[in-house]
């Protein structure tokens, strides 16, 4: 008779327990208990399957998961630099579906509370600030900034329109040829006027104009410099 022994490894152990990498010890134990109850010999389960479940749990319990330890050492370093930590968090959020949840958990443990603001186009065009009370302090937060770091919290501004890093905006406009060449083009949402002489008699054209959305400057409240607007104009 030939006996074949399948050596335990991490992939097989996770498969046996219906588990996945990144679980905490308590979560792994819950997976183990659930599987063990289903195949326990006292409940007329399969003894061999029960043995494999025990072996899988013991194997994973003894393994040193490199992710938490790596995060621990990395986060200890990153926590002294909130700006770097925030940049990492924002970058990872773009790939949220691909990043283990434990990574966000570890980063968030070391970050101040995050306030997410969703400015409208009107908020940006009219240079609005967001009034926010934290503890016994009241803050005026300029909503044209992408991220701001305060001592007690972090602000992420996620507007309803897409701006580039210099707060330039691309905007689509549809208008009637007759109306445009009679009185020019007034875009109320942007507070921008385009004179008829600046336009061509073409169904589609691009025109760059000065906007009112402030650029990001060292003085966070400064509105002395504003971004450009690239108008995509469709005439019919």
From TrEMBL:
Organism expressing this protein natively: viral metagenome
J domain location: 12-79
SMART domains, A to Z: DnaJ (SM00271)
Protein name: J domain-containing protein
Pfam families the record matches: DnaJ (PF00226)
């Amino acid at each position: 008779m030939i006996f074949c022994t399948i050596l335990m490894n991490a992939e097989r152990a996770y498969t046996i327990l219906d588990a996945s990498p990144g679980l905490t010890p308590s979560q792994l134990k819950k997976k183990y208990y659930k599987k063990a109850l289903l195949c326990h010999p006292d409940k007329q389960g399969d003894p061999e399957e029960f043995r494999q479940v025990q072996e899988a749990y013991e194997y994973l319990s003894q393994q040193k998961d490199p992710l938490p330890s790596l995060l621990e050492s990395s986060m200890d370093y990153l926590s002294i630099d909130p700006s770097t930590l925030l940049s990492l968090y924002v970058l990872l959020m773009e790939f949220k579906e691909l990043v283990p949840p434990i990574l966000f958990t570890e980063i968030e443990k070391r970050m101040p509370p995050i306030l997410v603001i969703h400015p409208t186009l009107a908020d940006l065009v009219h240079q609005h600030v967001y009034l926010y009370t934290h503890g016994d302090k009241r803050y005026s937060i300029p909503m044209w900034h992408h991220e701001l770091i305060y001592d007690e919290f972090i602000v992420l501004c996620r507007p309803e329109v897409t701006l580039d890093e210099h707060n330039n905006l691309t905007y689509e406009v549809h208008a009637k040829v007759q109306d445009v060449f009679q009185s020019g083009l007034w875009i109320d949402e942007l507070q921008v006027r385009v004179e008829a002489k600046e336009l061509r008699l073409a169904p589609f054209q691009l025109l760059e104009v000065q906007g009112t959305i402030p650029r990001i400057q060292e003085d966070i409240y400064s509105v002395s410099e504003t971004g450009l607007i690239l108008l995509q104009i469709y005439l019919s």
